[in-house]
Automatic annotation (TrEMBL):
Gene behind this protein: LOC108699503
Source species: Xenopus laevis
InterPro entries cross-referenced by the UniProt entry: NNMT_TEMT_trans (IPR000940), SAM-dependent_MTases_sf (IPR029063)
Full protein name: Nicotinamide N-methyltransferase
Protein family: Belongs to the class I-like SAM-binding methyltransferase superfamily. NNMT/PNMT/TEMT family.
GO biological process: methylation
Amino acid sequence: MSCSEHKDYHDEEFDPCHLFDTYIGADKTISKEELVETPLKFFQNLLSSGSVKGEILIGLTIGSSVCHSFVATDFFKHIILLESSDCCIKALENWIRNEPGAVEQSHIVEFVCSLRQSTEARKHEQKTRSAIKQVVKWDITKENPLGAVVLPQADCLFTAYYLEVVSKDQDMYINLLKKLSSLLKIGGHLILFAAINLSYYMVGQHKFAALKCDKEFIQKAMTEAGFIIESSQTHKSNLKSQMIDYDSIACFVCLKERLV
C-alpha cells in the first residue's frame, strides 16, 4: 500500500476506542510503557518541580485518551481539550460523562496515582472529569481552527503525537504549531510528545498515514513558531511490531518567547 492510499486520521474508518485498546490498553506492555507511561513520568516530574505552572492547560492529543489530564489535574484548575475529529470528540465526551461504552482508562489513572503515591484512583478519575471544562472542535481545515469559539490564553499547552498524525507535510506541521502557539501566553510553556520518524500506524485492518518527523525538524519548527526549547528527552523504542513504526519517543519542554 502506497502512502497515498493510507487512511487519514479524520476518515470515518478511524476508531478512537480501538486505537486506545490497540496501543495503550490494559493488556499492552511495551507500547503502553513507551507511548504513555514513560512520557507521563516525565510530565509528572516536570509539573512537580514547579518550573511549569499556572491555572489553564489546553491539551491536544489523538483519539479518546485523556492520559495527560490525569497528571495535569493536580496542577491546573481548568483543562480544555481540543480535537479535530468529530468521532474523537464524541468519545472524549462519553468518557467525561462516564457513559456506558466509554473507553476504559482506569489502568492509566492507577498508573498516575502510583506516581503520586496515592491509592485513590476512583476519586482522582472523577477529579479529572470535573477539571475538564470544555472539549472544543479544532477544525484544521479552517484558517481559524476555533471558529467563533474564544478561549482564554493558556499557561500551558500540551500535545502528544497529534501534529505528526494530522499534518500532510512539513509546512502544514509548522503552520498548525503556530496556530497552537497563539493559544498560549507569552512566557507560557508547550509540552510536546512526539513519535520520531513515525510514518504509519494501524487501527484494525486500516493503515493510517503520519508525517515522518525527526528531532531536527521538530526543533526547527519550534523555533519558527516562537518557542525556545528548554529541555528534551528521547527514549529509543524497543517495540517490534508491524502495527506502528516510530523509532523513539521525544519529550520537549518549550517556552513561548515571542509572537509569530
